[in-house]
Write a structure and sequence with these properties.
The complex is a heterodimer of chains A (505) and B (628).
Chain A: H1 10-32, H2 35-59, H3 77-97, H4 114-122, H5 129-142, H6 149-167, H7 174-206, H8 211-220, H9 225-243, H10 251-258, H11 261-286, H12 291-314, H13 319-340, H14 343-367, E1 370-372, E2 375-376, H15 386-389, H16 391-405, H17 411-425, H18 429-455, E3 464-465, H19 470-488, H20 491-500
Antiparallel strand pairs in A: 1-2, 1-3
Helix pairs in contact in A: 1-2, 1-5, 2-3, 3-5, 3-11, 3-14, 3-19, 5-6, 5-11, 6-7, 6-11, 7-8, 7-9, 7-10, 9-11, 10-11, 10-13, 11-13, 11-14, 12-13, 12-18, 13-14, 13-17, 13-18, 14-16, 14-17, 14-19, 14-20, 16-18, 16-19, 17-18, 17-19
Chain B: H1 6-23, H2 31-54, E1 63-73, E2 76-84, H3 86-109, H4 116-135, H5 139-157, H6 164-195, H7 200-206, H8 212-229, H9 238-241, H10 247-256, H11 261-268, H12 270-275, H13 277-299, H14 304-324, H15 327-357, H16 375-389, H17 395-408, H18 412-441, H19 458-479, H20 483-488, H21 504-527, H22 541-547, H23 552-598, H24 605-627
Antiparallel strand pairs in B: 1-2
Helix pairs in contact in B: 1-2, 1-4, 2-3, 2-4, 3-4, 3-10, 3-15, 3-19, 4-5, 5-6, 6-8, 8-11, 8-13, 10-15, 11-14, 13-14, 13-18, 14-15, 14-17, 14-18, 15-16, 15-17, 15-19, 16-17, 16-18, 16-19, 17-18, 17-19, 17-21, 18-21
Classes of the chains: A mainly alpha (505), B mainly alpha (628).
Chain lengths: 505, 628
């Protein structure tokens, strides 16, 4: 047997390779650098890696290649845009993650044990969250550019496994955090099983695991349609689980609430970009010709997801859970972009993902600031009167909520407007109607929080707002500026996306 | 031609407003100086642009600048762009020139006001918005400026909003302007719906393919907009109350610039009105009615600022009438607008100077004999007075006579009616302006005991003097060799020569005679008799009606306000029971369903997994159904 070495285009793969290298350095730092210098070293390595990777992505922005890694990945406009979005979101998330107060001193210790107490008292804070973040990001970067099912699955696990661990790193309420991590892991494994099962069906249908091969069979229409449909359904379940679409969403409120808040923000924003990126590629290129069979199903899921997310969010009393349901509703809105299946839908989805991701990281960054003696305060009743105590923080948070609600002059409005108009053009009227309806419902609970913050008298219960660290401040300011800048003057980004975003096959 | 420096015209004063408002009290010491400097720099940019424009041939003169593509989703595109042509440069120089003089005046006038910085911030904001209004290259960009000046006007009328009456006045101005603004937005919508564009060049090109009905609709809606902003009949009632603002504001916004925006709008839209004769006729009617309306109100006002406001209304009536006379009238309307900008701003500043010396007294019956105490104010005000009367060779003589002449020569019975109205208006103008002069400056003093009249400091009289020079010379300069008419002519379609009913000499003779009659009556009535320092009660019904602004407020109250209030009450009740009821029901239903759906979230991972399984099974089942 002759072994042919695969030809790798290192330039095009460099963004991911840099991240993996940085992550490995992070592991070494964790092992060898003294505890005093560890945190700052890790932070520098992580940020440096991310920025280097972003620079590399910018350099290859006009490249197109189907053969960068022996046909396993594809580099094109959408790939570059999604990777850049993930990296920007990752950078501002790392600024928030850098506040070590959110993370357990020693994740391996039992909650409440002597070991844990010792770790806290000695100040021997472990910082494995940084390399884990980098590993997760490299998986996210690989996910939307995979062009065969095996690579797609590897990328899925690469991004998921670190996230399972990161969800369990909370310093306070560690049991809840660990419970969240375990739930996420079990359900994630369950959905991965569906995904693998679906891969097997698709292989059975087309005798190929590459996107190109499966598409050929779909276009030719020669195979057994039942195999195709079941395969499609099961692969979709794996993806829909990641984006948190109903009925595969159940993990998200519990995990969002249990995970350390900086991780929640990162997860909510970056995972969505990666998972929707992969989904857009699969539906727009591989399954595009089988549109008749999946559009109705996906539309039904989109409608249920929007309505369910918006309705249940109303009943929430916890800000993190509310944002979790809001993120479920947003997953529904984004599905409208997948269903649109036209160029406008692709452009709008990418814009929406970036705008939503940035606003989400900003919103969760603010959640990390509202604390009392025992840590973060996420009970909405205790956010009453925040606008009087900390007008700037409350105003900024209100800005993000308005963006989530899609009020004009915020990025959320432009995102919703463009995604719904794309879906409308493609004839998915029922999805648009449900989308507008649930946007109206959603506005109800976003604005309720604003009313709570500004027009309700505060209770004196020791809830205070931490003065944001310089890094967290950067994140909040950046997110705010982007959210409003994209709302007031979106044209440059929109046209940049329009010019670049074309899938190659 | 493309330029990239137009934006500085707007950016300079806008930056001033932003700095003064954001820096807050820290800029109290130097804010007014910065604002004045920025307004002046904008004026110099305007002069520079004029010099460039003079160096180009007629076709090359208009220049434009695309600022940015504001939004572009699918086929829905909005660009922001500026355009400077022969018409807008006139406005740019008027706005920044008179504006800067009024900035200078205000430094002294407002020097005792603790909020002087805020005042200057609003003045700069106004200048920026007004420049955007005249520089926008589409109706939509104009609309942004249009709303901007409305906002600045609202803020400045209510500048002393600690007095409830002033706050109410600003609200009244704002609400009445909104009615007009609705007209503008309707005009934009119709234009967009029928022509698919809202840029001036686009609309102009599309006019010939558009139905007359649509053009008439657009024209009427533009006229509604103009009546709101320019205080024309039937939306004129706010202007008198707007005098609640500080006097420099009255001079700048409510005499020289903002209230002339309606004239600009109609002149700018000449291609629409030329193609929609019905709308054009309505313009003329509105102008004629308003010029009489304002003049009549002016005869009965004892408040010097309100008398001047009535006169503004009447003079803008002349301009609107001129603009409604079609291609021959546009240039004369603009000429009268420019000369009026000088003499009316000058007179308002004079009124401010009088108030400054008289303890903020505005009642002319408490003035008298001020000539000796305020010689400079008397001289500058007097020159403005001669200008508005149309005495040769002062500015108004050239501009007003042109409009009267054009009105007479507009043909047929229409020409005779319009000509007579404008002549009569000139006579009444002469009457009430003479009355203002006599009551204020001559006769015996009727002051309150606390009044110690004195001349204003040089910072105040210098702008007045410069404006007075303008009121003397601008008419001659603009009409010498048909300067302004030729300058503007490339913008308007010329329909050849018009028939001549009366020659210019005859018109001038008639006008001067009418003016002399008006002046004579005023002299007989006010100079010979002792003027009482309280308004006499036993006056004719006409005087009483004129004192009440020809019942305009009562009309508005009974026709619009009361029915409006009843309608609002009904709507509120409907809203409360039907709409809010529905919303509340939906809200309750949503919360209820949210709460019950929440039950699914049990926290048990096994039930979550089961949910996923159920979802998967449902998907497969659905596929099975679809494929069967």
């Amino acid at each position: 047997m002759v072994f042919t070495a695969p030809v790798l285009n290192y330039t095009l793969l460099s963004p991911i390779l840099i991240l993996l290298g940085g992550a490995l350095i992070g592991v070494l730092v964790e092992a060898f650098v003294s505890k005093g210098l560890r945190a700052i070293t890790q932070l520098s390595v992580t940020l440096g890696t991310l920025i280097l990777s972003l620079v590399q992505v910018w350099k290859i922005r006009n490249e197109q290649s189907l053969t960068a890694a022996a046909g396993s990945v594809v580099i094109d406009g959408p790939a570059v845009l999604l990777q850049a979005s993930i990296l920007i979101i990752a950078i501002i998330s790392v600024f928030v993650i850098a506040d070590t107060d959110h993370f357990t001193a020693l994740a391996a210790s039992l909650p409440g044990s002597d070991e844990e107490r010792h770790a806290v008292q000695s100040g021997n804070q472990v910082t494995e969250v940084y390399p884990l973040t980098l590993f997760a990001i490299s998986g996210m970067m690989l996910f939307p550019i995979s062009s065969d099912l095996i690579t797609l699955f590897v990328a899925l696990e690469m991004l998921s496994l670190p996230l399972y661990l990161m969800a369990g790193l909370s310093r306070r309420r560690r049991l809840a955090s660990q419970e969240a991590a375990l739930k996420y892991f079990l359900l994630g494994a369950f959905s991965s099983a569906f995904f693998l099962f679906g891969m097997a069906y698709l292989y059975g249908y087309s005798a190929s695991v590459t996107f190109a091969g499966i598409r050929e069979s779909v276009v030719g229409g020669s195979g057994n349609d039942v195999l195709l449909l079941i395969g499609m359904a099961f692969v979709s379940i794996g993806l829909l689980f990641k984006v948190g679409a109903v009925p595969f969403h159940a993990w998200s409120p519990d995990v969002y609430q249990g995970a350390p808040t900086p991780i929640t923000g990162f997860m909510a924003a970056a995972t969505k970009v990666a998972a929707f990126g992969a989904m857009l590629r699969i539906y727009y290129t591989v399954f595009a010709n089988a549109q008749w069979s999946w559009t109705p199903l996906l539309s039904a899921i989109a409608i249920i997801t929007m309505l369910f997310g918006s309705l249940v969010a109303i009943a929430q009393r916890d800000v993190k859970r509310m944002l979790a349901y809001s993120s479920i509703a947003h997953a529904g809105f984004l599905l409208a972009g997948v269903i649109a299946l036209n160029k406008a839908g692709l452009d709008a989805s990418i814009f929406y993902l970036f705008a939503y991701g940035v606003a989400t990281v900003g919103a969760f960054a603010i959640v990390t600031l509202v604390r009392d003696a025992g840590g973060e305060v996420t009970d909405l009743n205790r956010w009453k009167g925040l606008g009087k105590r900390s007008p700037w923080i409350a105003t900024t948070f209100a800005g993000f909520l308005l963006a989530f609600a899609g009020i004009p002059l915020t990025s959320g409005f432009i995102g919703k407007f463009s995604i719904f108009s794309a879906a409308y053009e493609s004839g998915a009227k029922s999805v648009v109607i449900a989308g507008v309806l649930s946007s109206a419902i959603a506005a109800f609970f976003y604005i309720r929080v604003i009313v709570l913050m500004f027009f309700t008298d505060s209770v004196q219960d020791g809830t205070s707002v931490e003065i944001p660290s310089a890094l967290t401040r950067i994140t909040i300011i950046f997110s705010t500026v982007v959210t409003f800048a994209l709302g007031i003057y979106p044209a440059p980004l929109l046209s940049f996306i329009t010019n670049l975003a074309t899938f190659i096959r | 031609m493309i330029s990239n420096s137009l934006v500085y015209l707007i950016a300079l004063p806008l930056a001033g407003a932003a700095i003064l408002l954001l820096a807050g009290r820290r800029s109290d010491k130097w804010g007014h100086l910065l604002a004045t400097a920025l307004s002046a720099s904008s004026f110099f940019v305007g002069l520079y642009q004029l010099s460039l424009m003079l160096g180009r041939s007629n076709e090359q003169r208009p220049i434009s600048q695309k600022l940015f593509e504001w939004i572009s989703v699918g086929s829905f595109k909005i660009d922001a762009g500026l355009m400077l042509d022969q018409l807008s440069i006139c406005f740019v120089l008027l706005i920044t020139g008179v504006g800067t003089l009024i900035h200078v005046y205000s430094i002294s006038y407002m020097s005792h006001d603790p909020d002087r910085r805020r005042f200057f911030a609003f003045l700069n904001l106004f200048i920026a918005a007004m420049l955007l209004l005249v520089l926008g290259d589409s109706y939509l960009n104009l609309y942004v400026g249009w709303e901007g000046v409305g906002l600045a006007s609202y803020l400045l009328i209510g500048f002393w909003n600690q007095k409830p009456a002033y706050a109410t006045a600003s609200k009244k101005a704002f609400v009445m302007n909104r009615v007009g603004d609705m007209g503008l937005s309707f005009a934009i919508m119709i234009a967009f719906a029928t022509m698919g564009t809202v840029s001036f060049t686009g609309v102009k090109a599309a006019v010939e393919h558009t139905s007359t009905a649509a053009l008439t609709g657009i024209g009427i809606m533009l006229l509604v907009a103009a009546t709101g902003k320019s205080a024309q009949f039937p939306l004129q009632a706010w202007l008198g109350d707007a005098m609640a603002g500080p006097t420099p504001v009255s001079a700048l916004i409510h005499a020289a610039t903002m209230v002339t925006a309606g004239v600009y709008l109609i002149t700018r839209s000449n291609f629409i009105f030329d193609a929609a004769p019905t709308a054009q006729l309505l313009v003329v009617i509105v102008g004629a009615v308003t010029l009489m309306f304002g003049a009549l109100i002016g005869t009965a006002k004892d408040d010097i600022k309100k008398a001047l406001a009535a006169s503004t209304m009447s003079q803008i009536g002349y301009m609107i009438l001129g603009a409604g006379l079609g291609p021959v009238g546009y240039a004369f309307a603009i000429m009268h607008l420019l000369t009026h900008g000088f003499f009316k701003a000058g007179m308002f500043l004079g009124a401010g100077s009088v108030m400054h010396g008289m303890n903020d007294e505005v009642n002319m019956r408490k003035y008298g004999a001020l000539r000796k105490f305020m010689p400079i104010t008397f001289a500058t005000f007097g020159l403005g007075y001669l200008a508005i009367l149309g005495v040769p060779p002062f500015a108004g003589f050239y501009s007003k006579d042109m409009i009267i002449e054009t009105a007479f020569n507009s043909g047929g019975i229409k020409g005779i009616i319009l000509g007579s109205v404008t002549l009569l208006g000139a006579s009444i103008t002469a009457f009430y302006m003479t009355r203002v002069m006599i009551l204020t400056f001559t006769g015996k003093s009727r002051w309150d005991d606390q009044a110690h009249p004195h001349e204003s400091p040089w910072l105040m009289w210098l702008p007045m003097a410069i404006l007075a020079i303008g009121s003397v010379t601008s008419g001659y300069l603009l009409s010498h060799g048909n300067a302004l008419v030729n300058w503007l002519s490339p913008l308007f379609e010329n329909h050849g020569e018009h028939e001549e009913l009366l020659s210019p000499i005859v018109v001038s003779g008639l006008a001067l005679t009418m003016v002399a009659i008006g002046v004579a009556i005023a002299f007989l009535k006010y100079s010979r008799n002792q003027v009482s320092d309280v308004a006499p009660e036993n006056v004719s019904i006409f005087t009483r009606i004129a004192r009440q602004d020809l019942l305009q407020d009562r009309f508005n109250e009974s026709v619009f306000m009361r029915p409006g209030q009843v309608l609002t009450k009904i709507l509120v009740r409907t809203d409360d029971s039907v709409i809010d009821g529905a919303v509340r029901t939906v809200g309750r239903a949503a919360m209820g369903s949210g709460a019950s759906l929440r039950g699914v979230q049990s926290g048990f991972v096994r039930s979550y997994a089961a949910l996923i399984l159920v979802g998967a099974v449902a998907l497969i089942a659905a596929i099975w159904v679809v494929t069967q």
